[in-house]
Amino acid sequence: MAKRPRGKGQWQSDLVAGFTFAAVNIPQGMANGALATVNPVLGLYSLMIATPVAALFSGAVFLNVSTTSALSAATASALVSVPGEQRTAALVTLVLAMGLFQLVLGVRKLGWLIRYVPNSVMIGFTNGVAILIILGQLGDLTGFRSGQNNAVFRALDLVIHFQHVQLSIFAVGALTLVAILMLQRSLLR
After folding, report:
1. Model pTM?
2. C-alpha to C-alpha distance for 118 and 11, rounded to whole angstroms
């Protein structure tokens, strides 16, 4: 692995990159931990472990290792039937099993198989994850707590029991969404 030459200004650039990484990935890691239906701090642990491991084994000079919402949603669906007190142990087992699976695929050099996954499958997967994320956040947006485990059933339960929506929570959430959309439009011009 080739090393970059270190110049006088290199440490300032590395410091800015580190702060930028933290500013983006700490909230994202916590959000993805919550999305995976585990303690949000576990999302931070994933960053603290994965980042140095990736730095040790990767040859890339510019590397951003982070949790993803797709993996978090898949993890949540895998853990949906696990009781709360056993969820962390099940998560550790799932992570180790998937890590071992990826290690075997890497050692056997089977990464080329991804070329045979059609683009339409990837688009469908991404859209499905987006829908699951949106449905999963409806309870937080409205303040309604459903007893259902499935995101689709929770959304249907919300529609049936719409009168139980907490208007103050919904107003804050709706105003935040409007502000985000307005800022996004004004910044794109």
Report:
1. 0.69
2. 43
